[in-house]
């Protein structure tokens, strides 16, 4: 089945979201540091949750947690909290 969540697919999304998080951390808009801190905490928590689920073999919830994490990053970009230009990693206006 093509749409299955495999370990390989999960690894790709861990890398994608971690890369996006690192870029966002380096691109915090001036005056938006408090908002960025809250978003970064949420993203890190969801990545941690994803690792927890993965260790227990629950790839569906691991994948869901990674998608929530990335959604937080995208919302920060859309709200101009993170000044990034990479449209491969983020939903850019």
Structure, described:
The protein is mostly helical and 93 residues long. The protein has a single domain (7-78), classed as Substrate Binding Domain Of Dnak, Chain:A, Domain 2 (Up-down Bundle), CATH 1.20.1270. The chain is 67% helix and 0% strand. The chain has 3 helices and no strands. 24% of the residues are buried. The mean pLDDT is 95.
Task: Briefly say what this structure is.
The chain is an all-alpha fold. It has helices at 7-25, 33-55, 59-78.
- CATH topology type: Substrate Binding Domain Of Dnak, Chain:A, Domain 2
**SS-based class:** mainly alpha
Corresponding CATH architecture: Up-down Bundle
Quickly name the level 1 CATH class: Mainly Alpha
Shape: elongated
- What is the string of helix and strand elements? HHH
Fill in the keyword field for this structure:
Substrate Binding Domain Of Dnak, Chain:A, Domain 2, 3 helices, 93 residues, elongated, mainly alpha
Topology:
Blueprint: H1 7-25, H2 33-55, H3 59-78
């Amino acid at each position: 089945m093509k749409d299955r969540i495999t370990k390989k697919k999960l690894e790709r999304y861990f890398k994608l979201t971690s890369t996006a998080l690192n870029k966002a951390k380096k691109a915090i808009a001036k005056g938006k540091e408090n908002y960025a801190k809250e978003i970064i905490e949420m993203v890190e928590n969801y990545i941690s949750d994803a690792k927890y689920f993965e260790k227990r073999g629950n790839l569906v919830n691991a994948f869901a947690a990674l998608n929530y994490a990335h959604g937080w990053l995208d919302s920060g970009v859309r709200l101009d909290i993170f000044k990034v230009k990479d449209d491969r990693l983020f939903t850019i206006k």
